[in-house]
Amino acid sequence: MHAMQYEFTLPADYDLGVIRSRVARVGHLLDDWEGLGIKAYLMRERGVHGSPVNQYGPFYLWNTLRGMNSFLWGGAFQGPVDDFGRPRVHQWTGLAYEEGGAADSPAVSAVRRRRPVPDGVELAAFMADAVGETERLAAQDGAVLAAAVVDTRAWELVHFSLWGHDTPKAEGEVYEVLHLSAPGRGELQRGRQW
After folding, report:
1. What is the residue range of 37's domain?
2. Global pTM?
3. What CATH number is given to the structural domain containing 26?
4. E strands along 8-48, which residues?
5. What are φ and ψ of residue 109, in 5° steps?
6. How many separate domains does the chain show?
7. Exposed / middle / buried, residue 120 (Cβ in 10 Å: 0-12, 13-18, 19+)
8. Within a 10 A sphere around the Cβ of 29, how many other Cβ atoms?
9. I need a labelling partner for 15 at 20 to 30 A (CA). Which of 1, 94, 118, 165 fits?
10. CB-based burial label for 138 (10 Å; 0-12, 13-18, 19+)
């Protein structure tokens, strides 16, 4: 599993109806994308759930690097680049993935929690704890799914979770889910990724 996210931070007075309309118009285009586990079309609204910004920030879990590269270099990614500019694309290696107890529910909200991997920790133990946290998140009432991923260049751990309600039981940045493309969700490897 490989994770990816890019974000477009929008002006404070930006009409977020434009983002909603865009996702309603094009969100289905990745509903059958080869190699994609899930794409959560995410939005944060300034002042909602403590967000300091208006932001559009899709989050992806990929089953294959070929699928991700096909998205980035095959033309599909050019649409958002043309509309909003070329963003920095964050990529993480998968540590763990779990389906939640509300796996059959539509995803309403998402939470992304980013934190550094501290210097001096035993990496095996730290990553095992991250796997355990993924399992705990997935076991929470209303959890649709949970994943843990790491960027070994920046030594950043990310927990990502989807929820079937708008009051998620996880700490971090809360997003509204506008659409979920999940062509390969059933193929995402569950549990620890090593």
Report:
1. 2-192
2. 0.96
3. 3.30.70.100
4. 8-10, 36-44
5. -140, 165
6. 1
7. exposed
8. 12
9. 165
10. buried
